[in-house]
Amino acid sequence: MKDEILRLLKNNKDEFLSGEKIGEKLGVSRAAIWKYINVLKEEGYGIESVPKQGYRIVSVPDVLTYEEIKEYLSTKFVGRNICYFDTISSTNMEAKRIALKNPEGTVVISEEQAKGKGRLDRNWVSPPKKGIWMSMILKPETEPTKVAKITLLGAAGVNKALEDMGIYSKIKWPNDIVIDGKKVCGILTEMSCELNMINYVIMGIGINVNMDREDFSENLINKATSLKIEQNKEINRKELLAGILNRFEEFYIPFKEDNEISEVIEICKKNSALIGKKVRVIKDGETKTGKALDINNEGQLIVMFEDGSIENIFSGEVSV
Ligand code: BT5
């Protein structure tokens, strides 16, 4: 009911709608309408109410609810079911908890994470309303070994969605997006599987959108940045979030149906932050240096080490 009232108000932005008229349309009492209007106001919607004229919406809050992003969304299933929180420990943890009961494409979003997670249990700084902190629930019918590719689909999706908004970034294989060498986005893909069958995959994406320099610790500001810092202006989180979901689905459907990721590989290569650079690879606790040569059709990073040996790196830590 609340969403329907909001829809009516949004569709009639330029005029007042009386409680009576809304009530007639939706089949509820004026008192009930008044109650819902108050809830909307509490959620941050600016609603003007004038006696004898009615209600008019004057502003919408900067929140990543389905209601607020759907006008930008063109997907079939990704992001069509959104579980929204003001605050939560970690969207990846919540997504895992609800994965079996919810359809593929469900997205868990929180305005803030108290215990945002990076890889290897590192932490991910996620202050309220300054970023996009989300996790997608995916259920591809593929072998568990193919799941590493999903991170690349996510990275390509973020890279392209940023480009659609005129923001140019690089993909630091396999899970970071960087601008000017500083990290603006990290991806954490986790899965639950049995021998040859995936139960679900959770892809968590964290993007520093409107964070200011003060939002980063002294330690982090040397290696992290936000879109706002780089662009010198606030970025529309709703448009970016929907853009990422749109682009991701565009890449995910061919992957899911035909194991097709050539477009994604092209994007990862063309916008690579690593290819041609000297890299350090940490594998099984050992650090080796070499040069990143390419990304192969399987999405693996090809590295030539100092001893001349060439290896395809499947996953792991790579730094420049
Ligand atoms: C990642 O890990 O880059 C994966 C981050 C995934 C975060 C998303 S947010 C939504 C979803 N829910 C979660 O709980 N997580 C996912 P890793 O490569 O391990 O990088 C972690 C390291 O990046 C930390 O040790 C810090 O040094 C640094 N870091 C922490 N917060 C950061 C931030 N906001 N921006 C850039 N770097 C950050």
Descriptive account of the structure:
The chain has 3 domains: 2-59, Arc Repressor Mutant, subunit A (Orthogonal Bundle); 66-270, Bira Bifunctional Protein, Domain 2 (BirA Bifunctional Protein, domain 2), CATH 3.30.930; 278-319, SH3 type barrels (Roll), CATH 2.30.30.100. It has helices at residues 2-11, 19-26, 30-42, 66-69, 91-98, 148-164, 218-221, 227-231, 237-258, 262-270, and strands at 46-50, 54-59, 82-85, 107-110, 131-138, 170-172, 176-179, 182-194, 197-208, 278-283, 286-295, 301-305, 310-313, 317-319. The strands form 3 sheets. The chain has a 7-stranded mixed sheet, with helices on both faces. It has a 5-stranded antiparallel sheet with strand order 13-12-11-10-14. Helix 6 packs across helix 9 (237-258) and helix 6 crosses helix 10. With 320 residues, it is an alpha+beta fold. Biotinyl-5-AMP is lined by residues 90-92, 113, 116-120, 122-126, 133-135, 175-176, 183, 186-188, 204-206, 208, 220, 224. The site of biotinyl-5-AMP (BT5) has 29 residues, from helix 5, strand 5, strand 8 and strand 9.
